[in-house]
Amino acid sequence: MNHDSNNIMVILSSPSGAGKTTITKKIQQKYQSFKISVSHTTRKPRPNEVDGVDYYFISHEKFKKLISEGKFYEYAKIFDNYYGTLKENVDKMIKKNDIIFDIDWQGTQQLSKFKNLKLIKIYLIPPNKNELKQRLIKRNQDSPEEVERRFKAYDKDVQHWKDYDYIVINENIETCYKQIENIISINKNKSFKVSQRAL
């Protein structure tokens, strides 16, 4: 399907613990036009998570059925669970809104194959690995083994920065957010000018 609106899709990826979820929520609070793409997942909800707001929590069987029916723009198996973006949800949302995807490099590569999607790909990295480990421990959501596992995945994750349009180092959340805001406004304007020319 073609999107004739000037709405844009922003992908925000990062190694686990680099702050992308915080930034995603800040953008959504500031810009009425932005909606966060809510992924489907097979993982169990964390205590503060709400079905349909943070994720759509579904069973492994249901997820595999959706894969076999080709319903996802992208999906990935991360650690032991599946995460995916349903085409139907995105196609509906982009007609009225800009969309932010809080997804990893695997999802980004798959979304990039759909040439009809206007994607702006931003990769967020922590200033260094040590800082990342501190953040993972501080956020206190994961067991020590999980922290270790996410920390180890960092080296593999970070090699995928080449797939992105922009790399932003998150040394300070405010500065980082401002940089991302700039990127969004440049691309929104560009998108608007192109559609003006087409009229």
- What would you call the structural class? alpha/beta
Which residues sit in consecutive blocks of at least 5 with pLDDT less than 50?
none
- Largest sheet: number of strands, sense, barrel closure: 5 strands, parallel
The general outline is: globular
The mean pLDDT is: 86
Detailed description of the structure:
The chain is α/β, with parallel strands linked by helices. It has one domain: Rossmann fold (3-Layer(aba) Sandwich), CATH 3.40.50.300. The chain has 7 helices and 9 strands, in the order βαβββαββαβαβααβα. It has helices at residues 20-30, 60-68, 87-94, 105-112, 129-139, 144-158, 173-198; strands at residues 9-13, 34-36, 40-41, 56-57, 72-78, 81-86, 98-102, 119-125, 166-169. The strands form 2 sheets. It has a 5-stranded parallel sheet with strand order 2-7-1-8-9, sandwiched between helices. The chain has a 4-stranded mixed sheet with strand order 4-3-6-5. Strand 5 (72-78) and strand 6 (81-86) form a beta hairpin. Helix 1 crosses helix 7 and helix 5 packs antiparallel against helix 6. It is globular and about 50 Å long. The chain starts with 8 loop residues before the first strand and ends with a helix.
